[in-house]
Each structure stands twice: as C-alpha cells, then as structure tokens.
Amino acid sequence: MSQTTSVDRYWLLTSHAYGTWLPGDKRGFVGWVEDPGNKLVKRNRPKTATEPGNAPLRQFAQSQMKSDAIWFTSREAELLWEQFLETAAYRQWQLLAVAVLATHVHWVLGVPGDPDPEDLLRDLKAYGSRKLNQHSPRGHQTKWWCESGSKRKLSGDGSVLAAIRYVLGQEHPLLIWTADIPELGLKQGRLV
Fold it and tell me: What pLDDT is recorded for position 47?
C-alpha cells in the first residue's frame, strides 16, 4: 500500500450503533455464553460460527438498555466521517476506507507501532460521540455505540485490499469514503 506516514499494522474495525445487535440476536451473535457444563466462555474467535439466536437472552439484553437503539442518519454519517478524518490525522493513522451505515461503521486503518485495537476503536468512537453530541440534530445521547467491536488484523497488501473492497461493497451505506488507493484505481473522496 502506498502511504505517507509510517504504518506497521493494518486493521479492519467494525462497531455497531447502540442497541442494533444485541446478545441473543436471531442473526447470531458473539460474546459470553454458557457451555454445556454451565461454564461461561467467550465465543468470538475469527472464522468460527456465531452463537444462534436466543430470544430470552435478547429480551434480557434489551431490558438492560439505557436508551433507545441508535440508527445513524445521513447527517450523523457526515459528522462521523469528518471526525474520523480528524482523529486519524491527529493520531497519525492512515485511514484507508470508511463505510457508515445506519446500524454500524467499518474502518480500514493503518497505524504506526502495534497499539491495542481496542484503543483504536475506543478513540474513533469516543471522538465520534463527542462530535455527534455537539452537532447531531437529536442532541446529546448517553450511548451512541455498542461496547467493543470487531477487530481483524490485516497482514499483507492482499488482505488490506480485500478489506477495502469489503468496506466499499457495503449495501445501503449512508456514506462511503476512500483514500487514494492506486492499486484499486481509487482517488480519495466520497463514493456515496
């Protein structure tokens, strides 16, 4: 990948908006579950099946929500995109692609060193939340995001390009943006 800052690691990160994919969801889910021996285990290893839907667990998770589920608007997608660009520039990260959908966000990000990907997600979401709280028409929200998110380490140009293609191929995006990526024939700019 061509780059202007020193990049040691690439990540495909994903996080859902608050309340849009709860534990027990019928689409499947990852997280803490009881195994057959009633021991709590965390099911979230890459390339493994998700847990099947569990209506009682979903109902319990929904009863614990602190506010309504968040579905991002087009205006909020714009605000988030602006903030992601600013955060990446400030942190000296290489933001390669972003897709903001109503229920979740994908980022392809190159970073210097080997920071904990949970820290990367935390910063993106924290600064995004601050921008939304300041400028979203719906005003301040207690929770904009689910906890944590998906963190996939990308190794080699092939996996980075595949991740970018994945982000650019999202259905029904509110906003998609890409950096200059000559390998894919892309010029920096908004695609949606």
Answer: 65
Distances (CA, A) of 122 to 15, 39, 52, 125, 162: 10, 29, 28, 5, 24
Q: Residue written as tokens 């995109």?
A: 81
Q: Which of 135, 142, 163 is nearest to 70 (CA)?
A: 142
- Nearest Cα to Cα of residue 71 among 135, 2, 138: 138
Q: Which residue reads 């400030």 in tokens?
A: 90
Tens digit of each residue's pLDDT (9 = 90 or more) over 92-129? 999 999 999 999 999 999 999 999 999 999 999 999 99
Alpha-carbon distance of 112 to 10, in angstroms, equals 9
Check residue 4 and give its pLDDT.
56
Distance, in Å, from the CA atom of 6 to the CA atom of 164, rounded to the nearest integer, reads 19
Query: Where do you find CATH 3.30.70.1290 in the chain?
Result: 9-19+69-190
d(CA 97, CA 84): 10
Question: Residue 166: its pLDDT value, please?
Answer: 96
Residue bearing tokens 């968040």: 70
3-state secondary structure of 51: strand
Contacts of 123 (CB under 8 A, 6+ apart): 87, 91
Low-confidence ranges of the chain (pLDDT < 70): 1-5, 44-48
Q: Which CATH fold would you assign to the domain 9-19+69-190? A: Alpha-Beta Plaits (3.30.70)
